[in-house]
Specification:
- By secondary structure, the chain is an alpha/beta fold.
- It contains ten helices and 14 strands.
- It has helices at residues 8-27, 32-55, 62-80, 84-97, 107-134, 175-186, 211-214, 241-258, 296-300, 317-323; strands spanning 141-149, 160-164, 192-195, 223-225, 261-262, 266-272, 275-281, 309-312, 330-335, 345-347, 351-353, 365-368, 375-378, 396-404.
- The protein has a six-stranded mixed β-sheet, covered by helices on one side. A six-stranded mixed β-sheet has the order 6-7-8-9-13-12.
- Helix 1 (8-27) runs antiparallel to helix 2 (32-55), helix 1 (8-27) packs across helix 4 (84-97) and helix 3 runs antiparallel to helix 5 (107-134).
- The relative contact order is 0.14.
Length: 405
Amino acid sequence: MRSPLFLLFPLVFFFVLDLLAFQTFKALDLGKVFGRIYWLVHGLGYAYILYAIIQFNPQASPAELRRGMQGFMVYAIALYVPKLFPVAVGFIEDVFRSGAWATGKGWQSRRQFVATLGWSLAAIPFLGILHGVFRGRSKYRVLNNVVRIKGLPNAFHGFKILQISDIHSGSFSDPDEVQIGIDMVMAQSVDAIAFTGDLVNNVAEEMSPWISTFQKIQAPFGVFSILGNHDYGDYVKWDSEKEKSDNFQALCDTHAQLGWDLLRNEHRFIEKDGERLEIVGIENWGKPPFPQHGDLSKALEGLHQETPKILLSHDPSHYDAQVSQHPANIALTMSGHTHGMQFGIEIPGWLKWSPVKFKYPKWAGSYPEADQARTLYVNRGFGYLAFPGRVGIWPEITIHELQSA
């Protein structure tokens, strides 16, 4: 477990950012009282961080550690991301003020206008972040994706597969919020369900309080699941390899308790009206530092290359690395992993943006090849990680409808 002293580094960063933001705050000319309130509020924040460092207990329960981390993330993101706006306009003001033309009697009023603009802009992300914490993380939505597949067996024309991903049960605290998503899943009329990895944050026991809730997720032709990078216990310091191995086995057993068919570099057949649909599932394969346990060749063993296949692969980077040029007919790849960074802007038909795009070019939604022979779909995730909210990128339930090309 990392020492809590690492929190001293963001504490120094926050203080410097507060000093810079205060320069534009003073330009609002609200008086000394509001200036003192500014530093009182931030002083309480510094005290909160120092208290967390002093009281940090690495042996605390997962729930206590989760609450501490989530509280810090809300404090840091809600209070400091918005400050980037007044700091930026303050910097622009300083650049212009350094020019000789910028001197004059009207400069004070212009400076106040710029400061007002900066803090007004800051209010937008601040309110958005609060909405993301108190409402956005349970703002589940159902998205439909039609996939046209060449050679699809006739019995599976119109077949619907519901996808959820990235549950991250270790982040949940409110059963009623989770139930909203479960009810929305079960309200859909689908044939099969696919879960594309990250059942927990770190350890198998995080799922224990939620088993009865997620056991309700069932479908006529079954629920197929795979593992994500968080399911291997790699982000925990274990006392022994056996302890880590036992945790991993418990995680795999949890899928069985849920009634879900866990595919570990394997394939299954869905049979309908005498015809079969091939479902392939691999373990996590991601670019470093993420683990590469996935073995696509092993998962495809015994299958004819030309028959259409549905692949479950947690990390979308696997698609470009191994899937897109694979000789097997992998018509649809379902992934997750990115969460859309839980932060971004989406306006259907016009704009889709998140900072995560700089890490994952294919980060949310459907990415069909030019010839329509293959499609990657990246689900935005059911849960959340670290920051207990979603801003602009809502939790997603996807329905893939298969149609003959």
